[in-house]
Amino acid sequence: MAEAPIKAFVCGHPIKHSRSPLIHGYWLEKHGLQGSYEAVDIAPVDFPSFLRSLEELGYAGGNVTLPHKEAAFRHAEKLDGAAERIGAVNTLWLEGGHLCGSNTDAYGFAANLDQQLPGWDSARTAMVLGAGGAARAVVHALQERGFDEVRIVNRTQARARDLQMRFGGSTSSHGWDEIEKLLPSTDLLVNTTSLGMAGSALLDISLDGLPDHAIVSDIVYVPLKTRLLKDAEARNLRTAEGLGMLLHQAVAAFERWFEVKPEVTDELRQRIVHDLGGAK
Predict the structure, then answer these.
(1) Which residues are paired to 173 by β-bridges?
(2) Can you give the residue ranges of the Quinate/shikimate 5-dehydrogenase/glutamyl-tRNA reductase domain (predicted)?
């Protein structure tokens, strides 16, 4: 008897904006797999009961996005190292009746830069703008790659300090007013805030102080080229946009459920860019 198709999901609240079904659907089709991946809108109050019913609903696992990542961390019975360090879960699967959790955002960030800017991790000092969930993933990725210094900069310095205390080691915390002073010794600048995203305020900082060898990365992908990246390109600095992080973080999750490791190709990238309306 043929095995039942594997079912996976992405859940959030709201969820209709998610491109994950398009990404995973592309890979299912590409590999000829008889599986499915669907978006499910789950309100926070219903999230615990949804997790308890995954096996009954026939799911092998799924992705978790806002606002459920920290709740998923609390409810998972087993966590991998990345989830433990970051304190949030974006990938779930069932194993021996147990709910397991991982966080693939750090992997996605690093893999995106590996693809776009090979050798990027030869840089030694990074500045991370923001102190939210995405910043946690980026800081973890940078520590995994052995950065000597990871400076966390946030408008509310107390939140930056919280991240510094969580990750320790090479991290330091700074207020927004220290950016200009820190830029000349920064090899890699990463924006993890929503500033510069379509519909949000611009990230209004000058890059004049960055050294000529610096790399600038933005996890925002709508628009694909943010003001920050345009300013960096005007200085002939190497840049990495954020869409690749979204695509690469999905690789590890897809492999977990469907037991096939997919590739992030130009064809997939262009399909998502088209769905975003060009993401100009």
Answers:
(1) 152
(2) 123-194
Distance CA 96, CA 29 (A): 28
Query: Rg (Cα) of the chain, in Å, rounded?
Result: 19
Structure pTM? 0.94
Per the annotation, the verdict on 230 as an active-site residue is no
Q: Which of 224, 264, 223 is nearest to 241 (CA)?
A: 224
In three-state secondary structure terms, 161 is helix
- Tell me the H-state helices in the chain: 20-30, 47-52, 54-57, 69-75, 81-86, 105-116, 133-144, 157-167, 179-182, 227-234, 243-258, 266-275
- Does 173 belong to an annotated binding site? no
Q: Say if residue 20 carries a ligand binding annotation.
A: yes
Q: For the segment 92-147, what is each residue's pLDDT rounded down to a tens digit? A: 999 999 999 999 999 999 999 999 999 999 999 999 999 999 999 999 999 999 99
Catalytic residue among 30, 69, 225, 280: 69
- Say whether 65 counts as a known binding-site residue: yes
What is the spatial distance between Cα 11 and Cα 261, in angstroms, rounded to a whole number? 22
Q: Tokens 């995973």 map to which residue? A: 24
Q: Is 89 exposed, middle or buried (0-12, 13-18, 19+ CB in 10 A)?
A: buried
Number of residues in the chain: 280
